[in-house]
# Entry
Amino acid sequence: QVQLVESGGGLAQPGGSLRLSCAASGIMFNFYNMGWYRQAPGKQRELVAAITRGGNSNYADSVKGRFTISKDNAKNTVYLQMTSLKPEDTAVYYCNAQWGTLNSWGQGTQVTVST
# Structure
């Protein structure tokens, strides 16, 4: 059974940092492309960052230079290091695993950036 469990969300001040983790089980982790998406109230879910099974990464323009996605295949875990946080980053962040037609999602973790 595929399970993706996010953690690390919470409250941060503008300019602060958070690190999100996504622990995967039930999949051959190294076969998958992994990504972080977010959804703010009243907004569509959007891709924040992704890392392919080959290790290449890409980012939304809004987070480029501030966020870093990484993964540890041995730990079946993908991370999102978020720095220089802005109020606009406030959203529920979801972990995604994709391989071919397979597409799995975590339940999300709330990130709130506010004074």
Notes: The mean pLDDT is 96.
